[in-house]
Amino acid sequence: xxxxxxxxxxxxxxxxxxxxxxxxxxxxxxxxxxxxxxxxxxxxxxxxxxxxxxxxxxxxxxxxxxxxxxxxxxxxxxxxxxxxxxxxxxxxxxxxxxxxxxxxxxxxxxxxxxxxxxxxxxxxxxxxxxxxxxxxxxxxxxxxxxxxxxxxxxxxxxxxxxxxxxxxxxxxxxxxxxxxxxxxxxxxxxxxxxxxxxxxxxxxxxxxxxxxxxxxxxxxxxxxxxxxxxxxxxxxxxxxxxxxxxxxxxxxxxxxxxxxxxxxxxxxxxxxxxxxxxxxxxxxxxxxxxxxxxxxxxxxxxxxx
Amino acid sequence: xxxxxxxxxxxxxxxxxxxxxxxxxxxxxxxxxxxxxxxxxxxxxxxxxxxxxxxxxxxxxxxxxxxxxxxxxxxxxxxxxxxxxxxxxxxxxxxxxxxxxxxxxxxxxxxxxxxxxxxxxxxxxxxxxxxxxxxxxxxxxxxxxxxxxxxxxxxxxxxxxxxxxxxxxxxxxxxxxxxxxxxxxxxxxxxxxxxxxxxxxxxxxxxxxxxxxxxxxxxxxxxxxxxxxxxxxxxxxxxxxxxxxxxxxxxxxxxxxxxxxxxxxxxxxxxxxxxxxxxxxxxxxxxxxxxxxxxxxxxxxxxxxxxxxxxxxxxxxxxxxxxxxxxxxxxxxxxxxxx
Lengths: 305, 339
Fold this sequence. Notes:
heterodimer; A: MetI-like fold; 14 helices; 0% strand; B: alpha/beta
């Protein structure tokens, strides 16, 4: 297990290096950043001054290392547009996005694992059909439409929940459901498929032959084995929710990172874009690492392979 | 038979609905097992041996139905027991060893965990006592360094060791009867004999009843007290081990016996014996002797055979249209063909 942890961590570290390189090169893949900053009216001298100021005239590897060195110290430079430190812009918004992401993945797991388990215990029963219905809806309904419908019903007609902003927990209810519901179908179907397979396995027959209680058979012996692929998928979904909640953040006016990245992209505000991409890519890598380690804990065979 | 009978089964049937109709994999079999006695159920693949054992344990698939005229375990009628009541018997009074040691242990838990949980569930919730029992039994089944093995996972053990763990697990609560469903089929030949001797020794030591399901007649000859030969879901011959082996009466039994190569007797390069044909389809209405289409002695009368066994004095019985004398002569003829 220790060897496995070290090995995985090392691989994760290598991935982060590559990701940082790719992120940095973003600024040089698009047009000359000095032109973007200067705008249409800038003279050649202005552009040259901007190049000097931001260090675009130095060799590219030098730029990369100084960028990476500062990024590691939490300095992502200054926004071209807002002239504020990027760190301040992100730290003011990341709480909202994290809260939303954590709540949404929890919501998805709390709905999908029990529902998938119950559906697997009685395949083709009424509850299984009901679960399938929910899954099909979740897969088919566009998030923005679902979110708008919730706003109309719960916000406008019944006036139960606030529809915009992030000041209280109540503000997060609808965004959480809208974002979490999107991940529910995949997680639920995977739980169901895993459970059906596991429940037919020989070791479950052994557990029954030992006269164990149904609770022990289901939770101790079956769920632990069935949940392994779900853990990996949930980690991917969580990363996706953190980075991809632009639509939800816009609809509910949450002003999180998703909204910020959308704004930064529109304005070609590269330092902001780079910082967001690097931070979320790092999140992804760490989440995947954690999911791998959790799975190795759940199934000791994994760390041997 | 008048001994301490643990399990008494009369006319056990299993029916499973399939798309083509009703499948009758077990069609009225009867037997009893006494304390310290080994009953071997023999027959080729698909004759209903495994389903019989699952039916006894109450572990049949949900779609299958079980009926019996009598199903007494420790003097208690277990036919209509609820799942919870059956679960209270399983693992404690009746234990089972399965065919596939590689997949029958949960890969996510240490063998110690899996050994201890059955004891804690049924006997005593304390951990220390269960652990001691587990170590004691692991040593009993011939596993060295038992205490340190407890923290190992199934994937760290070989097939033979896993089956030993399965045996230890079955013994954790001191069962009255142990059902072993082809416990050595998946193992190396060299390990097979070890495991079987181990089972036989433990069974004598703990005075359990044992039902050993197998298609290996060599095994049967060594460990069985009683033999029950099954074909197509019903018993074709049963009796004391010695009697069945020395004077087989049903053509299927003598056919099976012919399949065992005897060192020194079977000539090198000569064809090994076989029973031609395959087990018939057991869907729908079945009548007559099911072996008739593979039998050398089949006649028109076989089609109307009622299925009542012909009883001999020593508990030996067989189900065939032939009289004991005719059957014995036919069996001798089969034996000569090989020699």
